[in-house]
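Encode chain A's predicted structure.
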Amino acid sequence: MLHYAPRITVLSRPAFSEPAHLPVAWNGPASDGERLAEFAGRLCYMSQRNPANRTTPEYLLNILKQGHGSVLEHANYSLLLEGVSRSLTHELVRHRAGFAYSQLSQRYVDESEAAFVVPPAIIGDDALEATWRSQIESAQRAYIALVDELMARYAWVEDKVHRRKMAREAARGVLPNSTETKIVVTANARAWRTMLELRAGEGAELEIRRLAVAVIRVLQAEAPGFFGDLEIYEAEDRREAGRIGYHKV
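Encoded structure for chain A:
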């Protein structure tokens, strides 16, 4: 199976419970994550009465303009990313502050029927894709053969589960970076903004840039007050890219 685009599923979002003794004079609708950030910001100055009568989006826009991004750290969003390559996740996990990751293990999971992610740079070129496909199919055949041979080599290991792990962890060395993986990523809104600023830009590697653009769309639907200043546009290379309105919040 081949993947030509990532699949993103929202697993969790903030749930805000307003304390009865510190009510905020809310103005207009907002998501729980956005209200959590507004409540945290207003607590700093005990401005729950909302003297300026701002809506939550207006309040958060003012926060973004002033660069007071710490209140965004209270709101966490968890995404399941599928149809992404191990090459991509090697880059993604370099984002540490504010992030948590749980990724499919090649030591335990059988990759004999693994899917692969077509690199964006070769999509649409039949010759390039044929060359790439030949290589990944060869690598997968080598993986299957190695697992079988290593299971026989380690026949003396009585625990069959441990024996399979020993075989798969050795055989995975022949699998390419294009092997598809699945990863759960949790980050606060401030950390997501930093990652998206860096990875959606025109200088980012194409696959992670494609993912970042897709994440922008997902998170803008979840919390426009946090991510509404991010703009998706068509870059000079005729691919989508993203840029941020308020840098280093």
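Helices lie at 32-45, 56-66, 86-92, 126-153, 160-171, 189-199, 206-222, 224-227.
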